[in-house]
Design goal:
By secondary structure, the chain is of the alpha+beta class. The chain has a single domain, classed as Alpha-Beta Plaits, CATH 3.30.70.100. The protein contains 4 helices and 4 strands. The chain has a 4-stranded antiparallel sheet. Helix 2 (about 40-60) packs antiparallel against helix 4 (about 100-115). It is elongated, with a radius of gyration of 21 Å.
């Protein structure tokens, strides 16, 4: 009986370890919401499309999708990123915000068009244990 209980305990520990490892391997997602202004919305989109995406990719960003919406009387640009883990996300943002090319583009476009972004909301999203990652096949 003691051997059986020991085997059950070992099996349970292995299952819990495998579940924890699988959860640790699940990506995290980041939801970014920028308030943008109707008067210079085209300049914002041009800057993001022509510069920010390219520079972000260079620093390891994986943008899944982008949207424009209106909420509470303001126009918003919303995008979803995928990261392997939070440490990678934080390191990539540090590199991106310190990138000299990006700093110069922001300076030039800001001088030409005024502020392109108002408030920024940032949320780190972690999948529940019963959710499939975005884009995964549904059964």
């Amino acid at each position: 009986m003691a051997r059986l209980l020991a085997a059950i305990a070992t099996t349970a520990a292995l299952v819990l370890h495998a579940s924890a490892a699988a959860a640790a391997e699940r990506p995290i997602h980041q939801l970014r919401i920028y308030e943008i202004f109707e008067g210079n919305k085209a300049a914002f989109h041009a800057r993001f499309r022509d510069h920010a995406q390219r520079i972000m990719a260079r620093h390891g960003f994986r943008i899944l999708s982008m949207w424009e919406t209106t909420a509470e009387g303001r126009t918003e640009f919303v995008y979803l990123l995928e990261w392997p883990d939070e440490a990678t996300m934080k390191a990539a943002w540090t590199r991106f915000t310190a990138d000299p090319e990006w700093a110069e583009i922001k300076r030039v476009t800001g001088a030409r068009h005024g502020p392109l972004v108002g408030g920024i909301e940032d949320r780190t999203l972690r999948l529940t244990d019963y959710a499939q990652p975005p884009g995964a096949a549904r059964h």
